[in-house]
User: Which sequence fits this backbone?
């Protein structure tokens, strides 16, 4: 599903950003968007948060719900 892939990409971006903050004290989103309180930064942070919430649903879906064919032996 397209929304799943978008959510995963945003979650990965968020994870990389948090990794940069944790390891180097550098917030890439804030750097690129004009600071943590800049409107664009806050929109990106909100989208990443929503993507993380969406990704929780991936944990509870069956293979059929993810669009994968069931494997039969």
Assistant:
């Amino acid at each position: 599903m397209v929304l799943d892939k978008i959510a995963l990409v945003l979650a990965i971006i968020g994870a990389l950003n948090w990794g940069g903050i944790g390891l180097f004290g550098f917030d890439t989103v804030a750097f690129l968007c004009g600071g943590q309180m800049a409107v664009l930064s806050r929109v990106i942070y909100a989208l990443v948060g929503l993507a993380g919430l969406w990704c929780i649903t991936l944990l509870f879906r069956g293979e059929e719900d993810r669009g994968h064919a069931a494997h039969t032996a």
